[in-house]
Amino acid sequence: MGKRNSRSKAAAMFDSDDDSSVTSSSTARSDLMSVSGTEDVQFDQDSLLDQALDALDEKRGSTREKAFSTIIDALKSNMQHQFIEKKFATLLHQCLASIKKGSKKASAKEITLASHAIGCLALTVGCSDNAREIFEDSVSPLDESLARSTEVLKVPSLLDCLAIITFVGGNDQEETERSMDIMWRVIHPKLGSNVVAVKPSAQLITSVVSAWSFLLSTVSNLKLNSKHWQSSISYLSSLLDKEDRSVRIAAGEALALIFEIGDVDKFSTEAKNASDLTQESKPQESFIFLQGLKGKVINQCKNLSAEAGGKGSAKKDLNSQRNLFRDILDFFEDGYAPEISMKIGSDSLQTSSWSQMIQLNFIKHFLGGGFIKHMQENDFLHDVFGFSPKKKYLNSEHRMSGGEKRMFKSPNSVLNKARTQLLNKQRLLSEGRNAGHYAVSVVEDEA
């Protein structure tokens, strides 16, 4: 009876006649106060989150959409450790139920929100057993949804979700490679009797390359002398000639990242010292081909760094393109990536590599308005970026409940487990970086 009443309250709070509207936590906060009849009471966010979670069981799609929006807003605006500790499994199950085929008649908007909620959940729990569970339970549903998707609007969120859960919960290069392959098949599907080749849109290409680059940023020491990476570089180079500026920018960042991780020049020595030149492996030819590709990319970057801009070209976007490709040229000439300094409250976060810059921009884009809050309080992101805020939540410590204090301070706490698993993950990655490829096999004329 109590559960039924709880669901009724949830439906009353999140239901609406406007199927297209999506609420925020501020709107839901007003609704909660109206229901309680006390507008001056302290807002109970845990209660709101419980109501939103109950509303995910409602039949009406617009009700579920609003509930997801409220949950996402809450996960971005605060860390919500206590709520997640209690309701993690339920929330993950509800998100996956909206993504999986046939479990609900979910709209593209609901699938977009559900996938975004999973990504926010992964970033909140950090490198922990929960993050591992998110990864293991979500990869296949995301893969299936991407494979059958005919609505472009939901694909970017599915890709972003796959990128985030792999970044946080993936353990080794094989898992990262699998996620990168899933992404690439979105614009290069394996053609069969039931698959029709469709030319991908600029938005789709940009989303795939950005998510793919985000995962690539966790890798080092690429084998650029392999045919796989030569094919990847050729394809990305062809994207620099596309009309859409967002495609060119995404491809430029990906190429800079590839040449940062894999040094073409070091293969010169290998080529000169190679004595066994088989038909399958010819280091000298590989080195010459890579140098040619690099030269082509440099010439393309020169042109894009000085582009005059066409009719209807947004000046801001044009300046972003020019600045990026000037930075890429500088990188090819002196070997240094652009240094970025970003204010995080009273602190400053610095990056000095393409890998860090791509990670920072991707997570900032994903979290939106919640980025600063997470950078200030999310221990996982502190470890990722080597960022140590000067204020260690001293102002909020005295407001913690006994349960929260135990969760933060116990040797078996979520956060302490997260730190341990992050170190283990970094060790595994470093051991496996010299083997295998994180590449795509595509032909240049497919672009």
UniProtKB/TrEMBL annotation:
Q: Entry's Pfam families? A: IFRD (PF05004), IFRD_C (PF04836)
Ranges of biased composition (kind: Low complexity): 21-31
Enumerate the spans annotated as Interferon-related developmental regulator C-terminal domain. Answer: 378-427
Q: Where is this region: Disordered?
A: 1-37
Under the heading InterPro entries, the entry gives: ARM-type_fold (IPR016024), IFRD (IPR039777), Interferon-rel_develop_reg_C (IPR006921), Interferon-rel_develop_reg_N (IPR007701)
Record domain Interferon-related developmental regulator N-terminal: where? 24-333
Q: Which family is annotated?
A: Belongs to the IFRD family.
- PANTHER family, from UniProt? INTERFERON-RELATED DEVELOPMENTAL REGULATOR, INTERFERON-RELATED DEVELOPMENTAL REGULATOR 1
Q: What is this protein called?
A: Interferon-related developmental regulator 1
> What gene does the UniProt entry assign to this protein?
LOC101500237
